[in-house]
Amino acid sequence: MDVIFSALSLAAIYGLVAIGVSLTWAALGMLNLAHGVAFAVGAYGGWLAADHLSDSAPVVLAGGVAGGALVGCAIYLLVVVPLYDRPNWETRHLIATLAISLVGANLLLELFGPSAKALPAVFGEGSVTIAGSVVTADKLGAIVSAAVVLGAVAVVLRRSRLGLGLRVLTQDSEGAALVGVSRNRMALGVLALSGGLAGLASVLLAQTFYANPDVGFVPLVKGLLVAVLGGLGSIPGAIVAALVMGVAEALTATYLGQEYVLMTLFVVLAVVLLVRPRGIAGLLEEARA
């Protein structure tokens, strides 16, 4: 049971990152390599909120979300506004977001220094026993917080104008413009939302690890793996893939060692893509059919 709760807490964090990756791909055809910067800035946003405002859970989590969302807005201004609808968007946005990732990490290093910053235990130091397994407060808090936020995102995407506009935009971008869906407004909303989700994930992860300038690199890699495994652009696929990768990482770390985790995740991805090139989203579509 300990492995199961570890897997669920990892899946909660990876799911938040991967859904942001899938949303930007679905809306803009954009693989955001600066998503890790949103993660890192979110961690520092939570640390600043705890240091200057309050170390209560709502304030620290809101600081992380705000930091990540601000990076999403900056990516919109620096990448989407000048480059979208221009020739070679597919290549240019990769170069631009990679540049933002490198510059962002160095800016964080200059502003906060190389030393890691510890965030407060916003969910407390205690633990609970569930089905005979001791679950620490940080793991339980991450699972519950991510579940609530992902449920809220699902409702927003299904019932709000943002969600409706996103579905229209992904199906027919020219038709979306004809019926009054603003692609620029949608792009800004999607990037702010995906950045906010990454910022939340960073605060949840920082309950175990620390905030540092490079903290977003590994979550970016794992988030990309999860998004590709789930099928780029598929939100249900990303959630299922996050669970699969969470279980794979928890089992690998427990029985083989942490050094084999990334290798195992790449092997899982390769095996699934060999069988189903469209990832888990293809399996879900076949099941619905």
TrEMBL record:
Its main location: membrane. Coiled coil: none annotated. GO terms for molecular function: transmembrane transporter activity. Signal peptide: none annotated. Belongs to the binding-protein-dependent transport system permease family. LivHM subfamily. It is found in: Cell membrane. One of its GO terms (cellular component) is plasma membrane. GO terms for biological process: amino acid transport. It comes from Conexibacter arvalis. The lineage of its organism: Bacteria, Bacillati, Actinomycetota, Thermoleophilia, Solirubrobacterales. Keywords: Amino-acid transport, Cell membrane, Membrane, Transmembrane, Transmembrane helix, Transport. InterPro entries: ABC_transp_permease (IPR001851), BCAA_transport_permease (IPR052157). It is a multi-pass membrane protein. This is Branched-subunit amino acid ABC-type transport system permease component. The chain crosses the membrane at residues 6-26, 33-50, 56-81, 93-113, 140-157, 188-211, 223-248, 260-276.
